[in-house]
Specification:
The structure is a single chain. The protein is globular. It folds into 2 domains: about 10-20 and about 270-340, Immunoglobulin-like (Sandwich), CATH 2.60.40; about 30-270, Jelly Rolls. The chain has 1 helix and 25 strands. It is about 0% helix and about 45% strand.
Length: about 350
């Protein structure tokens, strides 16, 4: 194990990163374990009470896509402690203005695995339930336009973990979108329909992962791998983007009423924190570490690197950016510092 070691005669900086009681989650799903993404950063059992009354704030879910008129609040309810979306319901995990909400966005540079527990009220093929991800950079400010691109040219990845009503089983699609509004075009993986039939009136767990190193997306149902997609359908630009979650109860055209029940939403990322810019100035020292927006960290101290119990320093810190910092006074006593990564409880 590594740690930040602080003494006055000579300072040696290195970092211990530990999972808290809920950190590197036990029972990591196979889709996350396949990539060694063991840190659970979202673990939700959503209800209608988690939905923001407005378009921003410290809430977990927000009503409607930023480019559309929000659906009526009556499209959402809680049934037996489970979130129910009626036909037309459309929830996102980030405020409509893309300010910070209660749930973190998922960094493409790190990679991620997400999964959704979903069932429908019935199996009519007109129902079009969808669980999917989009990057926050695709917004009205066109932050998905990058240096070297033509003016107004946008690039982004859309990851559809599952869409119902297209065939007997999961429809999982990754889109590489490019263009200048309104002339956007995409290419997508042709192997997007699983032949494994599903009874959508029963709960299923739909999972999707994005691996930036392999530039590959994978889809899972109930812990079983369904298919992969890679370049050119998985765009390189996805590694520069940050993704939010979407729950939609759509229709294939007949507008037959139904309910989409979402009983669980989870996201896993690599358990990896990098020590950045350790400094000593006079009688004080500081260190910065890479962080995940919305993730909570606790700095701890001990005089014994192998101690079972470490002392918490201050309150846990929930970060809103890609870095977090700690500072303290240099002493003549050897001290070790570590950062405990805390994972959300449902």
């Amino acid at each position: 194990m590594a740690a930040v070691n602080e003494t006055r005669p000579g300072l040696l900086f290195f970092l211990a990163v530990c999972a808290g009681l809920n950190g590197a989650a036990q029972g990591v799903p196979p889709g996350a374990a396949a990539l060694t993404y063991t840190l659970c950063v979202i673990n939700e059992h959503p209800t209608a009470a988690d939905i923001a009354p407005g378009s921003s704030g410290d809430y977990k879910w927000f009503n409607g896509q930023w480019w559309e008129t929000p659906p009526p609040p009556a499209d959402y309810s809680t049934v037996s402690n489970v979130l129910a979306l009626s036909l037309g319901g459309d929830l996102v995990s980030t405020p409509r203005d893309f300010s910070a909400g209660a749930l973190p966005v998922l960094s493409g540079s790190n990679g991620f695995y997400v999964e959704f527990d979903v069932r429908l009220s019935d199996t009519n093929q007109d129902h079009w339930p969808a669980v999917w991800l989009m990057p926050v950079e695709h917004n009205a400010q066109m932050q998905d336009s990058y240096p070297g691109d033509p003016p107004g040219f946008e690039r982004w990845m859309e990851l559809d973990v599952d869409e119902g009503g297209w065939g007997p089983g999961l429809l999982g699609t990754v889109h590489s979108w490019t263009g200048i509004w309104p002339d956007f075009r995409s290419i997508s993986n042709p192997n997007n329909l699983s032949p494994v039939a599903l009874d959508r009136s029963r709960k299923h767990t739909f999972g999707g992962s994005y691996d930036p190193l392999a530039r590959r997306v994978a889809w899972w149902v109930d812990g079983e791998l369904q298919m992969y997609a890679a370049a050119p359908y998985v765009p390189a630009v996805a590694a520069k983007q940050h993704f939010y979650l979407i729950l939609s109860a759509q229709t294939h055209g007949k507008n037959i009423p139904y309910s989409m029940f979402v009983s669980g939403v989870r996201a896993y990322v690599p358990l990896a924190v990098e020590l950045l810019t350790p400094r000593v100035q006079g009688s004080s020292f500081s260190f910065t570490w890479s962080s995940i927006p919305g993730q909570t960290y606790q700095v701890q101290r001990s005089t014994d690197l192998g101690a079972a119990d470490w002392l918490n320093l201050g309150d846990p810190v929930t970060t809103a950016s890609l870095t977090a910092s700690f500072s303290g006074a240099v002493t003549n006593t050897q001290q070790f510092y570590r950062v405990v990564v805390e994972s959300p409880t449902p």
